[in-house]
Amino acid sequence: MAYKTVKGTYDMLPDRMIRFNMLSDLFRQFLNLYGYAEIKTPVFEYTGVFQKENDTSDMVTKEMYTFSPNGKDSLTLRPEGTAGVIRSFVENKMYGNLELPVKLGYIEEMFRHERPQKGRQRQFTQMGIECIGDKDPLIDAEVIALGYFYIKTLGLESVKVLINSLGDNESRLNYKNELIEYFKPHKDELCFDCQNRLEKNPLRILDCKIDSGSAVVAGAPKMKLSSESEKYFEQVKHYLDVMNIPYEVDDRLVRGLDYYTDTVFEVVSTNEASGSQATIFGGGRYDNLVEEMGGPSISGIGFAIGMERLMILCDAEEIFDIKNSIDAYVVNLNETKDYALGIAEELRNNSFTCEMDYYGRSLKAQFKSSERKNARFILIVGDDEIKDNVVTLKDTLTKAQETVKRDELVDRMDQLMEDYYE
Length: 422
Ligand code: HAM
Description:
CATH topology of the largest domain: BirA Bifunctional Protein, domain 2
Shape: elongated
Structural class: alpha+beta
Distance between the termini: 57 Å
Bound molecules: histidyl-adenosine monophosphate
């Protein structure tokens, strides 16, 4: 029986892996630049880590992979990174042991039972950060800056930053009640999901994919921020201006998860290749989550970038310029294999990428291989070379060929590489 990958999952084949590693390497550099330390939390947690009382998000109510291996504990494959990181922050008492804000980053697989489509899988990777500590607008702006400048450093053009404020607990509660009153007489005009959301989380109606274009939603009242939240949001925008980060205020941006307060943001692609899954990354502040998870009353803010969506956009904008090549290929005869192996190992010890023929194939076949592998140098090792303790070195860029003493090979290759790029 031949098996296939499970729906919504995919193999990361080598050409994808190269891109994945390039994107994650650069992300790690950005973590470092902004003072974030990397963290890894378990792939599964107790379900309560993700599921809070009265949770209304689709992710928690419909999309979690929950299981109970012993019929007792309820466990869930993590659908997102924030909750696990906060669980770890609290469990390891980082608030007492480390200087605040604690800045943590992660690159990890997430699992959501969503309907798969381009840019939406059931297993996907998020690159995320969480900055947990005192609340300050400068932190919000810096978190957005990390993500924005990462995207810009990749060279992506067709993206825009959307920001909004969901206000503090009190202004959000008032707004929620105002929306319920407003939408109640229009309940029949809303989609099935929004009819269910109406009492529990009417804010989500504002960015519902089905209803958001309707006249009812267009006429909904706008959020009135408390003067403190208003001031806070103005400060966040001020710091974004100072860093020359362009943004649009989108007062319909509410985000899909329940824990957000005050600042929320998304970076969306305007490239049509992204299709309906245009949100490359999203995040926001969460004032209550740390306390809800049993920790002190400390706020946090973060975001997560969807790796697969980022790759789709990078492909569309032809960001990747990948040439697979090696430094050297050692052409050898069956009887010179040991000598060739010594050379290959010495080159690898000196950080040259190197391959050699394993099978005793014809010289013609070996030259073909070296071409396919795009080798900069071809090293030829025959009986004569062994007798004279030398190597024949062919530079495929300059087409020059020379005989090099065995113990001078590494220095000579170093020199040729340097000369060429000067
Ligand atoms: P989220 O908006 O649910 O936020 O997900 C963040 C990003 O993950 C999305 O913008 C998208 O790029 C990617 N993503 C989500 N679901 C899928 C999927 N099924 N397939 C492919 N990519 C997907 C969070 O998860 C929050 N934890 C972000 C955050 C961190 N907020 C504060 N800190």
